[in-house]
Design a protein that fits this description.
The chain is α+β, with helices and mostly antiparallel strands. The chain is built from 13 helices and 19 strands. Strand 14 and strand 15 form a beta hairpin. The structure holds flavin-adenine dinucleotide. Flavin-adenine dinucleotide binds next to helix 1 and helix 9.
C-alpha cells in the first residue's frame, strides 16, 4: 500500500474558492486550525472570471477581517439602472436603503484571501487530486487526497466543510435518504463577453428588450463585462465581435440615444442558468457551504455573496462548537443559512423572470413585463424591496430584534452606509 501522511486538524475544508478560503481565514482569526484543499492550481483559479458585485456585508466581512484592498481598488455602486422600453430608470440604493454594493471581481477576492492565508501561515493545498471524504457520521471524519507532487495524505478532522462548488463531490456523498434537492433549469443562458473598452455607464445597467435581456457591467477603466440572453445551445463560434456588438447595441437602444462603447472582445462564454438547493446543509460532521449547497441564476448577483454569508455563520458556529466545546451550536447552521438562501433564490428568480424573455412569450407577456417594470420603478415600496435585496439582507439571527443596518450598536466599516 502507498504510504500516506496523516495530519490532524480541527476543520478540513474541501474547496479553496471564496467560501473555503474565507472560512479558513475567519477560523484562523478565531484561533482554530484548518487545512483547505483544492483540485485546481492557484493560477487556474486566478484566471477564472466570475462574479463581480459584493454586497455591503461581504465588503464588511473582508475589511473587518483585515482584507481591505477592496476599499482601494473596488468601486462603490450606489444604485443600478433598470432599462426598458428604451429608457433608463435609476434604482437609488443609497436614497432608498442607505446602502451600496461594490464592484470588485471575484478573482481579486480570491487573490486577497489566498495572500492573507499565505501571509498568516495558513495550510492551503492547491492542485490536489483524488479527493475522498470518509466517516462523515463518525467523531473523526477524514479527507484523503493526493497532493500536487503525487504524495498521498489523510486529514483527520473534527469537522469537514464541503465548499467544493456547484459540481460538489461532498454533496454527492450524502445518502439520498438524508437530503432533498430542489432544482429549476431555465430555458435560456447568458452569452458573456469581456471587452477591452471604456465603461459605457458608471453603474450596472439591467436592460429588458423585445430581443431579450442584456446586462452592462464594468470591470476596470479599460475592461468591461457584458452579457446578453441567448439560447442554451448557442455556439460561441457563430458569434463574431461585430455580430455581438450589433446584438448588444440593439438590446440597449432607445430614444435617449444610449449606446455602448465598443472594443476588442477577449473572452466569450455561454453560462447556463440554474437554481438549486441542497437541504439540509449538514450531514453528520460535514457541513456544506456556498455553491456546493446552492446555486442561483446570476441576475441578482447573489452567488458569491451567499457563499460568503454561509461561511460567516459557519465560522461563528464552528467557533462555538470547537472553541467553546458546544457542538450543539452547529444545529442552527442549516436553518440560519437556508433562510437567506431561499430569500436569494426568490430574488434571483424574480429578477430573472422580470427581465428575460421566455422563448414562448406572447404579446401579452411582453406588455405585462413592461407593466411590472413600470409598477416597480414607479413605486417607492417596490424599488425599496429591490434595493434592500440587492444590497443584501442582514443575517436572519441578527434581524430579530438585534442590531440592524446603520443602527448605533452595529459598528459600520463603510462611511457610505
Ligand atoms: C462563469 C460564471 C460566472 C458567474 N458570474 C456570477 C455573477 O456575475 N455574480 C454572482 O454572484 N455569481 C456568479 N457566479 C457564481 C459565483 O462565482 C459562485 O457563486 C462562487 O464562486 C461560489 O463560491 P464557492 O467558493 O462556493 O465555489 P467555487 O468558487 O466554485 O469554489 C469551489 C472550489 O472547489 C474546488 N473543488 C471542486 N471539486 C473539488 C474536489 N473534489 N476536491 C477539492 N476541491 C474541489 C474548485 O476547484 C473550486 O476552486 C458565476 C459562476 C460562474 C461559473
Amino acid at each position: 500500500m502507498t504510504e500516506q501522511t496523516i495530519t490532524d486538524t480541527a476543520v478540513g475544508i474541501v474547496g479553496a474558492g471564496p467560501a473555503g478560503l474565507m472560512l479558513s481565514h475567519l477560523l484562523a482569526l478565531a484561533g482554530i486550525d484548518s487545512v483547505a484543499i483544492d483540485i485546481r492550481t492557484r493560477q487556474e483559479i486566478e484566471q477564472s472570471h466570475r462574479a463581480g458585485i459584493l454586497e455591503r456585508d461581504s465588503v464588511d466581512m473582508l475589511v473587518n477581517s483585515g482584507v481591505s484592498r477592496v476599499l482601494r481598488d473596488g468601486h462603490e455602486h450606489k444604485g443600478i439602472d433598470l432599462r426598458f422600453a428604451g429608457e433608463s430608470h435609476r434604482i437609488d440604493f443609497q436614497g432608498l436603503v442607505g446602502a451600496s454594493t461594490w464592484l470588485y471581481p471575484q478573482t481579486d477576492v480570491f487573490v486577497d484571501l489566498a495572500d492573507a492565508r499565505q501571509r498568516d501561515g495558513g495550510d492551503v493545498r492547491f492542485g490536489v487530486t483524488g479527493t475522498e471524504v470518509l466517516d462523515l457520521t463518525e467523531p473523526r471524519p477524514r479527507i484523503r487526497f493526493t497532493d500536487a507532487d503525487g504524495r498521498r495524505h489523510e486529514l483527520r478532522c473534527r469537522y469537514i466543510v464541503g465548499a467544493d462548488g456547484s459540481r460538489s463531490h461532498c454533496r454527492f456523498v450524502v445518502p439520498e435518504s438524508h437530503r432533498r434537492w430542489y432544482f429549476r433549469e431555465y430555458p435560456f443562458a447568458w452569452f458573456g463577453i469581456l471587452a477591452e473598452a471604456p465603461p459605457s455607464a458608471p453603474e450596472l445597467v439591467y436592460a429588458r428588450s423585445d430581443r431579450g435581456f442584456a446586462l452592462i457591467s464594468q470591470r476596470t477603466e479599460t475592461l468591461q463585462r457584458m452579457y446578453f440572453q441567448c439560447d442554451v445551445t448557442e455556439n460561441i463560434d457563430d458569434w463574431s465581435d461585430d455580430r455581438i456588438w450589433h446584438e448588444l447595441q440593439a438590446r440597449v437602444a432607445g430614444a435617449d440615444g444610449f449606446s455602448l462603447r465598443e472594443g476588442p472582445i477577449i473572452e466569450k462564454s455561454v453560462l447556463p442558468f440554474r437554481s438549486f438547493v441542497h437541504e439540509p446543509m449538514r450531514y453528520g460532521n460535514m457541513l456544506l457551504a456556498g455553491d456546493a449547497a446552492h446555486t442561483v441564476p446570476p441576475t441578482g448577483a447573489k452567488g458569491l455573496n451567499l457563499a460568503l454569508a454561509d461561511v460567516r455563520i459557519l465560522a461563528e458556529l464552528l467557533g462555538r462548537a470547537i472553541g467553546e466545546n458546544d457542538p450543539r451550536a452547529l444545529e442552527q447552521y442549516s436553518s440560519r443559512a437556508l433562510s437567506r438562501v431561499w430569500k436569494a433564490q426568490q430574488f434571483s428568480y424574480w429578477m430573472t423572470t422580470m427581465l428575460h424573455r421566455l422563448p414562448e412569450a406572447t404579446d401579452f407577456d411582453d406588455r405585462r413585463q413592461i407593466g411590472e417594470l413600470e409598477a416597480l420603478v414607479g413605486s417607492d415600496a417596490g424599488s425599496r424591496y429591490l434595493a434592500e435585496a440587492y444590497t443584501g439582507w442582514p443575517d436572519s439571527e441578527r434581524s430579530e430584534g438585534t442590531p440592524r443596518r446603520g443602527s448605533p450598536d452595529r459598528p459600520l466599516v463603510l462611511g457610505s452606509r
